[in-house]
Amino acid sequence: MPHTRSAEKNLRKSIKRRAKNRTVKRDIKDELKSFSVALTGTAETAKLELLKAIKQLDKAAAKKVIHRNLASRKKSQLARAYHAKFEKAQA
Fold first, then answer.
1. What's domain 5-90's superfamily in CATH?
2. Using alpha carbons only, what angle is made at residue 14 by residues 8 and 16, rounded to the nearest 5 degrees?
3. pLDDT tens for each residue of 47-82
4. Can you give the residue ranges of every domain in the chain?
5. pTM score
6. Distance (Å, rounded) from C-alpha 6 to C-alpha 87?
7. Handedness of CA 53, 54, 58, 64 (dihedral sign)
8. Residue 71 and residue 67: Cα distance in Å, rounded?
9. Minimal CA–CA distance to 80: which of 54, 45, 42, 44?
10. CB–CB of 86/43 below 8 Å?
11. Residues 6 or more apart from 72 whose CB is under 8 A from it?
């Protein structure tokens, strides 16, 4: 338990921040899952889900919820998965 008033306030702030960060991370995981489901469908739906997932990752990295390198790595993995699935079919 915090002993000073400033420590009490910092505890309240960290609880609020933790709740918001957990929500953002949950949204990212949901978006990544919907992208992996969309990979089994058509290229157009997968492309839309890819763009949504990339946008979610960029926003989280901009707010420093996740590290920018993590966002970059995930975006690269998603793009590779998309291209491996649909670019071979077109060639």
1. Ribosomal protein S20 (1.20.58.110)
2. 110
3. 999 999 999 999 999 999 999 999 999 999 999 999
4. 5-90
5. 0.86
6. 56
7. positive
8. 6
9. 54
10. yes
11. 61
